[in-house]
Design brief:
single chain; mainly alpha; Growth Hormone, Chain: A; 16 helices; 79% helix
C-alpha cells in the first residue's frame, strides 16, 4: 500500500497544490528514479543479507517517506517523501522473488509470482478504500500519515515472522573481486539477448501501468464528468479486477506450454494497446468506464509473468541480483512514459495521450512479433534458454 499510496490521492494533490499533469507525472518519476541507481546493488545485497535485516530497512524507509510527504504539506516535501518510498521499494522485488523461487515449482512460476504480485494490488485497493475518505474529511496529509502508521504496524508483524530467517550461504570475497564479479554480472545481463527482449517489454509495460495509476482518476473526471468519489471507486474497481486477473493470466502462462512467456507478454501488450485506443474514443460513459477497467486490469497483470520468465532465465545465478538489474529498464519506463503522457495531456487532452500510448504499444508489439516471425533469436529467446 505504501508505494502506491499516491494513486488514490492524485486528485487531492492536483486540487490542493494546483498541479499540472506534468507535475503529477513527477511523482512516479521520483518513485522510480530514487531506486533506479540502487536497483542492481539492492539485488546483489538481497542475495547476501538476512531477510530480517532487509525487511527492517525497507519498512523503516517506507514509513519515513510517508511521514515526510504527509508532514510537509508542500509538493517538494511530497516528492522528497516519495523518493524514500522509491528507495525502499527497490529491494522488495529481489527479496520476495528470491524467497518464492526457493519454494515454487518451475512449471508453476507464472501462477506463483502473479499471486505474489496480487498482494501488491490488494495493498493498492486497500489504499483506494481507506485513504480518500480520510482525505475528504481531513486532508491528504493526514491520509498519508495514517498510511505510515498502518505500514509501521504491518512491518512489525513481518519482521517478527522473519525472525528465524538465515542469510544465504556465500563464499567470502575481497572487495576488488566482489566488485569485479558484480560488474561482470551486470554487463552479462544486458548482453543476453533473452534478457534484453524481456527488459524492453518491462520498460513499456511499467510505463503504461504508471500512466494508468497516475492519470485514470483525472481522466475519468475530465472525460466522463464523474465526481471525485466516483472516479476513486473506478480506481478501486480496476485494482479489484487486477487481483483476479493477475493469477488467472499467470496460470494461463503456465498451462500454455506451446508458447513461451515472452510471446505471451507480447500478446498482453497488444490487448492493452487496443483497450487504450478504444478508451480514447468518444463513447457512452458506461462503455468507456468498462474499457478503462479492462485496460487497467490487464495492464496490471504483466509483472508476475515477467518475473516468472526472469526466474527461468536466471536459473543457476542470483535471482535477487537478476531482479535488481531488471528493475533498471522497468524504472526507466515508469519515469519516461508517464512524463511523455503528461506533456501530451497538458498540450492536448487525456484522450490524445491514451490514444498515442495505445498506438505506440501496439506498434512495439508488432515490432517484437515481426522479429519472432523472422526467427531472430536475439529478440525472442526460447522458453528453456538460460543466462550464461
Amino acid at each position: 500500500m505504501a508505494f502506491w499510496s499516491y494513486a488514490p490521492l492524485v486528485e487531492f494533490f492536483r486540487r490542493d497544490l494546483t498541479l499540472s499533469a506534468v507535475q503529477l507525472a513527477l511523482i512516479p518519476i521520483v518513485l522510480e528514479g530514487a531506486g533506479l541507481s540502487l536497483a542492481p546493488l539492492a539485488g546483489w545485497w538481497v542475495d547476501r543479507a538476512n531477510p530480517t535485516v532487509v525487511a527492517r530497512v525497507i519498512l523503516s524507509s517506507a514509513v519515513l517517506g510517508m511521514l515526510i510527504a504527509g508532514g510537509s504539506g508542500l509538493f517538494a516535501g511530497v516528492l522528497l517523501g516519495f523518493s524514500f518510498l522509491g528507495m525502499s521499494f527497490v529491494a522488495v522485488g529481489p527479496m520476495t522473488n528470491r524467497m518464492l523461487a526457493s519454494s515454487a515449482p518451475l512449471h508453476r512460476l507464472g501462477t506463483a509470482y502473479s499471486i505474489k504480485q496480487s498482494s501488491v494490488t490488494i495493498g493498492m485497493l486497500l489504499g483506494a478504500i481507506l485513504l480518500p475518505p480520510i482525505a475528504v474529511h481531513t486532508n491528504w496529509r493526514v491520509a498519508l500519515i495514517f498510511a505510515a502508521v498502518l505500514t509501521a504496524g504491518a512491518g512489525i508483524l513481518i519482521v517478527w515472522r522473519l525472525r528465524d530467517s538465515k542469510p544465504p550461504v556465500i563464499v567470502r570475497q575481497n572487495r576488488a573481486k566482489a566488485f569485479r564479479d558484480f560488474r561482470m554480472s551486470l554487463v552479462a545481463s544486458f548482453r543476453s539477448p533473452a534478457m534484453r527482449s524481456l527488459f524492453a517489454i518491462g520498460f513499456v509495460f511499467q510505463g503504461i501501468t504508471y500512466s494508468y495509476m497516475t492519470f485514470i482518476v483525472p481522466f475519468a473526471i475530465d472525460s466522463d464528468g464523474l465526481q471525485l468519489s466516483q472516479a476513486v471507486i473506478l480506481l478501486g474497481a480496476i485494482q479489484s479486477a487486477a487481483i483476479a486477473t493477475r493469477p488467472a493470466l499467470g496460470w494461463l502462462s503456465d498451462v500454455w506450454v506451446a508458447k513461451d512467456r515472452t510471446k505471451y507478454l507480447i500478446l498482453l501488450a497488444v490487448a492493452v494497446g487496443l483497450l487504450m485506443i478504444s478508451s480514447s474514443l468518444a463513447l457512452p460513459v458506461l462503455l468507456h468506464i468498462t474499457l478503462l477497467v479492462c485496460g487497467g486490469a490487464v495492464a496490471l497483470a504483466w509483472i508476475g509473468i515477467y518475473f516468472a520468465r526472469l526466474a527461468e532465465l536466471s536459473a543457476g545465478s542470483g535471482l535477487g541480483f537478476a531482479t535488481g538489474v531488471s528493475l533498471i529498464p522497468i524504472k526507466l519506463g515508469g519515469m519516461i512514459i508517464p512524463f511523455a503522457m503528461g506533456v501530451i495531456i497538458d498540450r492536448y487532452s487525456y484522450r490524445h495521450a491514451f490514444f498515442g500510448a495505445g498506438v505506440a504499444l501496439v506498434a512495439c508489439s508488432g515490432y517484437w512479433w515481426w522479429h519472432l516471425i523472422r526467427g531472430v533469436d536475439s529478440t525472442l529467446p526460447s522458453r528453456g534458454e538460460k543466462v550464461r
